[in-house]
Amino acid sequence: MTASLRRRSAAGFTLLELLVVILIIGLLTGIVAPRFLNQISRSEATAAKAQIDAFDKALQAYRIDTGRYPSGGEGLDALQSAPANLPRWRGPYLKDKVPLDPWGSPYQYRYPSTMGKDYDLLSYGHDRAPGGSGDDADITN
What we know:
mainly alpha
């Protein structure tokens, strides 16, 4: 090899090569990032559905033991600590205290139901407001 050829090969990347690499990284980020963020939204909704299902099972066990669902005032806390004057309570019905939904808001519990069910149990979703669609849709029992 000649000295000038050795110097050129040791010089590193050209500006054009660096621009091509940056362009490729930008394109990959533009394609992968939205799909990744969409996957996170789906996993939050799946986690909320799983938690609501766990609450549903705990509420059914509560009803079997006590003969009724917790009142609206007692709420989901009745699954963790016994309400006053309820001798048939055999809980706690949840391992830990009632968690927040995946978006950091408390789950909503209503008894009696306003939707024609035994009780209403819901998360308001990403927007933390009633209603919505897509990622902002409410998740209910």
